[in-house]
Amino acid sequence: MTPVQQHPLRKILEDRIAIIDGAMGTTIRTYGMQEADIRGERFKDAPKDLLNNGDIFSLTQPAMICDIHRSFLEAGADIIETNTFGATSISQSEFFVDDPREHGGRKDPEFYQKIIDDRFLNDLAWEINERSAQQCREWADRVANDTGRQRFVAGAIGPLTVSLSNSPDADDPGFRVVTFDQVKTAYMQQTRALIAGGSDVLLVETIFDSLNAKAALVAIQEVFEQDGNILPIMISAAVGRGGETMISAQTTEAFWNAVEHVRPLSVGLNCSIGPDLMYPFLSELSEKSDVAVSCYPNAGLPNPLSETGFDLKPADMGRFLGQFGGEGLINIAGGCCGNTPEHIAAIARALEGIAPRRFGATAADKKEVTA
């Protein structure tokens, strides 16, 4: 087992600002895919629409997904994320299982236990995660061999379609549709499949419910303990305009305090609001955290009239992320919704030659010298 502190990505984060890729969903839309394309032959008889289930493209349109990974790598990404944002049995059930609420029932722990035990959903979730990690691995290694610069695969673990922190029933605030153990079980399977596919790190991202994230982190740690294969963990939260993690409403500092014990390789903010509105919360996190800090915001706020669905152009994102780097706030930079390979290329150019934020031992050394 390789201790996290000796991982080669950590050394890079100490030496320069690393670049993470952009938005898979946004970039998929540029290929003009339709419902028939995502279904392919395999899912042609699926009872529900699948076009919003972008993870399935890793199985039905692997050439497109690999081309997207290639594009982000050639744009300058050091880290590419697996196409697995919703690749758990729980999230996949939204596309393959009838909603009991349409027949007078409700989603509850009994319903989700059937999901957790469903062989089809479990096999599908495993396959998406493993295949997506393998696709990333292949292209990360190809581009690394061609350029002489190591690239890394981040196994993306998304926030789920259910919440552990809140009740959907205004008349029953104590009700939860799913249990902590059910969420943990789904995340354990995803973790194992991402590791099996060749991920270098695990990325718990777009956290809007800190308790969901807690279940993911417990799942990861239990897999590490049971299987003996330890990878670095990256953690990234989505924040609202007040700097809170949305549904669970933890402030930026409280979020860091809640995950600090995991000793992640990095902690950061992504998605959410645009980079300008994210700035004060990123600044606070950078001040409080003693690990590497990541930032990959949306390309501004949603705009249905924009080509990407978001306001900011590549030059805009380069300017904002360049500012964050120049102020010593970040170690990892990239883009979330609305960010294409062109956006990532602009961010990479803007940050070239800018020193990374000091953290851990290097930050302590800097304080001693200053004193």
Write up this protein.
This protein starts with 7 loop residues before the first helix and ends with a helix. Helix 13 (314-326) links the parallel strand 7 (292-297) and strand 8 (332-333). The chain is 47% helix and 10% strand. It has a single domain, classed as Alpha-Beta Barrel (TIM Barrel), CATH 3.20.20.330. An 8-stranded parallel β-sheet has the order 1-8-7-6-5-4-3-2. The chain is built from 15 helices and 8 strands.
**Shape annotation:** globular
Secondary-structure element order, N to C = HEHHHHEHHHEHEHEHEHEHEHH
- DSSP helical segment count: 15
Largest sheet: 8 strands, parallel
How many E strands? 8
CATH class call = Alpha Beta
State the separation between the terminal residues, measured CA to CA: 37 Å
Mean pLDDT: 94
Assign the CATH architecture.
Alpha-Beta Barrel
Helical content stands at: 40-55%
Tell me the radius of gyration: 20 Å
What percent strand?
A: 5-15%
Regions with pLDDT < 50 over 5+ consecutive residues? 364-371
| Full CATH superfamily name | Homocysteine-binding-like domain
Structural class: alpha/beta
What order do the strands of the largest sheet run in, or round the barrel if closed?
1-8-7-6-5-4-3-2
The CATH topology name reads TIM Barrel
The quaternary structure here is single chain
* Count of distinct structural domains: 1
